[in-house]
Design goal:
By secondary structure, the chain is an alpha/beta fold. The chain folds into three domains: 3-86, SRP54, nucleotide-binding domain (Four Helix Bundle (Hemerythrin (Met), subunit A), Up-down Bundle); 101-294, P-loop containing nucleotide triphosphate hydrolases (Rossmann fold); 300-476, Signal recognition particle, SRP54 subunit, M-domain (434 Repressor (Amino-terminal Domain), Orthogonal Bundle). Helices cover 52% and strands 7% of the residues. It has helices spanning 3-17, 24-40, 45-59, 62-65, 70-86, 113-128, 144-154, 168-182, 199-212, 227-240, 257-266, 287-294, 300-310, 313-324, 330-342, 345-350, 360-365, 372-381, 385-389, 396-406, 410-431, 437-445, 468-476, and strands at 101-106, 132-136, 158-159, 186-190, 216-222, 244-248, 270-274, 282-284. Helix 11 links the parallel strand 6 (244-248) and strand 7 (270-274). Helix 5 (70-86) packs across helix 12 (287-294). The longest helix has 22 residues, at 410-431. The protein is flat, with a radius of gyration of 25 Å. Residues 435-467 and 473-517 have low confidence and may be disordered.
Length: 517
C-alpha cells in the first residue's frame, strides 16, 4: 500500500537530504513536486493545499534553513504533517458502554462491508475476549444473510437466526433483544448497501440507528475508489454521525489518496484497514507508522507486533539454542520459510524495515518469487527425517527422488541446498556477532554494500537515521515504552531467515529496545 506515493515522496525528499545547505527556492521547488505527487495519488485538492501550506510555513524558517542538517529537518516536518493529516493518534473501536454494545456497519454495496463485519468480529473475540453476535439487516441483496451466517461460522462467532419477511429495523430490534437474553457483549449490525448514495439507503440506516442507539457507527469504504470514497464518507457522516472509518482493499492501493483525504476531510479517525481477503487480514491504522512507511522510514513497531503474533515462541527458542551450537538443518529452514510467509513474505518485511523501500527495485530484479517458499517447503517435506538433519546425504539418486516427489526439478533442489549452506554459515557468523542485518540481506539478495542507515546495504548516504522525536512518537503509542520483544526477536532472532541471529538485530542502530548505542 502507498507504494506509488512512497516512491515519489522518498525520491523528492532524498534530493533535499543530499544537500549541505538549503535555500527557500530549494524548499519551494521540492514542495511543488510534493504537491504534484499528492494530487497524482488522488488526494483531495483542499487537503493538498492545506498540507503544503503548513509544511512551507515551517520549512522556510531560519531554524530549518540554518540548521546543521536542513534536509533532514524538512523530512521531519513533512513526516509530522503527514501524521497530523492522518490523525495524531490511532483510533480504536470503543467498547466502553453497557453490554450489549451495538456497532452499526454502513457503506455502499461492494465495499466489502459484510466480510469486514466478520473480520472485526473475529478480532473482538480473539483480542478483546468478547462474545459477539452478528446480524444481517440486508433484506434486498440475494443471499446476503446467508453470506454473513457462513462467515460467522468461519470466524467462530454466533449469528442471528434468519427469519423471512422482517424489515431491517425489526431484525435490528430482534438482534438487540437476543443479545441481552444471550449475554452477548457486542452486537454487529450489517446494514444494506446501494450501488450509489440515495435517500432510501440513508433513511433505512437512520431508522436502524434510532432503534438501536449504536455506540459505534463504522463506515466501510473501498480505498480504490479514491475521491469518491471521500464524498461517500462526507454524506454518511452528515446523515448518520460516523464515529470511525474502515478502509478495505488497502493492499491493492498503491496511491493512498482515500486514506490521506478521508481523515482530513471528515475529521473521523480511520480505525482499521483491510489488507487482504483472508479473515485475519485486518490491521489497526496507526498514523505515525503509516507516515513513516510512506516516507520510506519503515515500521519497526508493526514488524515486532506481527512477529509476536506469528512466531512460535517455544520453537524459536529451540532454534536459537541449536544456532548457538552452530547447527541449522533443513527442518529449521522449513520453519523459517513458513514464518516468513505468515509475515507477508520478503515484500511485507521490506516495507517495514527503515529505508528498505529505496532498494525494492534491486530486490525485484533478483526475481524473488514469493511462491518459491511453498515450493521449497514442498521439497523439504519430500525428504526423509535423516536427510533433513544431514543434507550431505543428498546425492544424485536421492535428489531425483525428492524432485519427483515434490513436483520440482533437481535444479531447484540444488538452489535450496545452496541457500541452506549460505544461511547456515550466516547464522553461525551472526551468532558470533560478526555480521549485521544489512550484510545478511545483502548476502541473500546479492546486493552490494555502500553506506546508509545502521549498516544496511545499498541505502543512499543521505537517508536519515530515526530521530529522537520519531522514537518518542513510537513510545507514546505504547504508554512510554516500546513493547516487550517476544522470544525469537528480543535478543534472539532465529525466527526470520537472514534477519539476525542469537545476538538480536545488529545493524538497526539501536532502534530496537535492548540494543541502544
Amino acid at each position: 500500500m502507498f507504494e506509488g506515493l512512497s516512491d515519489r515522496l522518498s525520491g523528492i525528499l532524498s534530493g533535499l537530504t543530499r544537500r549541505g545547505a538549503l535555500t527557500e527556492a530549494d524548499v519551494t521547488a521540492a514542495l511543488r513536486e510534493v504537491r504534484r505527487a499528492l494530487l497524482e495519488a488522488d488526494v483531495a485538492l483542499e487537503v493538498v493545499r492545506g498540507f503544503t501550506e503548513k509544511v512551507r510555513e515551517k520549512a522556510v524558517g531560519a531554524v530549518v534553513l540554518k540548521s546543521v542538517t536542513p534536509g533532514q529537518m524538512v523530512v521531519k516536518i513533512v513526516n509530522d504533517e503527514l501524521v497530523a493529516m492522518l490523525g495524531s493518534e490511532a483510533g480504536i473501536i470503543d467498547l466502553n458502554a453497557p453490554a450489549p454494545v451495538a456497532i452499526l456497519m454502513v457503506g455502499l454495496q461492494g465495499s466489502g462491508k459484510t466480510t469486514t463485519t466478520a473480520k472485526i468480529a473475529r478480532r473482538l473475540v480473539a483480542r478483546d475476549k468478547r462474545r459477539v453476535l452478528l446480524a444481517s439487516l440486508d433484506t434486498r441483496r440475494p443471499a446476503a444473510m446467508e453470506q454473513l451466517a457462513i462467515l460467522a461460522k468461519q470466524v467462530e462467532v454466533e449469528s442471528l437466526p434468519i427469519v423471512a419477511g422482517q424489515s431491517a429495523v425489526q431484525i435490528a430490534r430482534r438482534a438487540m433483544d437476543a443479545a441481552r437474553l444471550g449475554g452477548f457483549d457486542v452486537v454487529m449490525l450489517d446494514t444494506a448497501g446501494r450501488i450509489t448514495l440515495d435517500e432510501a439507503l440513508m433513511a433505512e440506516a437512520a431508522e436502524v440507528k434510532a432503534a438501536t442507539n449504536p455506540h459505534e457507527v463504522l463506515l466501510v469504504a473501498d480505498a480504490l475508489t479514491g475521491q469518491d470514497a471521500v464524498n461517500t464518507a462526507r454524506a454518511f457522516d452528515e446523515r448518520l454521525g460516523v464515529t470511525g472509518i474502515v478502509l478495505t482493499r488497502m493492499d491493492g492501493d498503491s496511491r493512498g489518496g482515500a486514506a490521506l483525504s478521508m481523515r482530513a476531510v471528515t475529521g473521523k479517525p480511520i480505525k482499521l484497514v483491510g489488507t487482504g481477503e483472508k479473515v485475519d487480514a485486518l490491521e489497526e491504522f496507526h498514523p505515525s507508522r503509516v507516515a513513516n512507511r510512506i516516507l520510506g522510514m519503515g515500521d519497526i513497531v508493526s514488524l515486532v507486533e506481527k512477529a509476536a503474533e506469528t512466531i512460535d515462541h517455544e520453537q524459536a527458542l529451540r532454534t536459537a539454542e541449536k544456532m548457538r551450537k552452530g547447527k541449522f538443518d533443513l527442518d529449521d529452514l522449513s520453519m523459517q520459510l513458513a514464518q516468513m510467509e505468515k509475515m507477508g513474505g520478503i515484500g511485507g518485511l521490506m516495507g517495514m524495515l527503515p529505508g528498505m523501500g529505496q532498494i525494492k527495485k534491486q530486490v525485484e530484479n533478483a526475481n524473488l518469487d514469493e511462491k518459491m517458499f511453498k515450493r521449497q517447503r514442498a521439497i523439504i517435506s519430500s525428504m526423509t527425517a535423516q536427510e533433513r538433519k544431514n543434507p550431505d546425504l543428498l546425492k544424485n539418486s536421492r535428489k531425483k527422488r525428492i524432485a519427483a516427489g515434490s513436483g520440482t526439478k533437481v535444479e531447484e533442489l540444488n538452489k535450496l541446498l545452496k541457500m541452506h549452506r549460505t544461511m547456515a554459515d550466516m547464522m553461525k557468523a551472526m551468532g558470533s556477532g560478526k555480521r549485521g542485518i544489512g550484510q545478511a540481506l545483502g548476502s541473500m539478495f546479492g546486493m552490494g554494500g555502500g553506506g546508509g542507515m545502521g549498516g544496511m546495504p545499498g541505502l543512499p548516504p543521505g537517508m536519515p537515521e530515526p530521530t529522537p522525536e520519531m522514537i518518542a512518537d513510537m513510545q507514546k503509542q505504547f504508554g512510554g515504552k516500546l513493547p516487550p520483544m517476544p522470544p525469537g526477536l528480543g535478543g534472539k532472532m532465529p525466527g526470520l531467515p537472514g534477519l539476525g541471529g542469537p545476538k538480536g538485530l545488529p545493524g538497526l542502530g539501536g532502534f530496537l529496545p535492548g540494543k541502544k548505542k
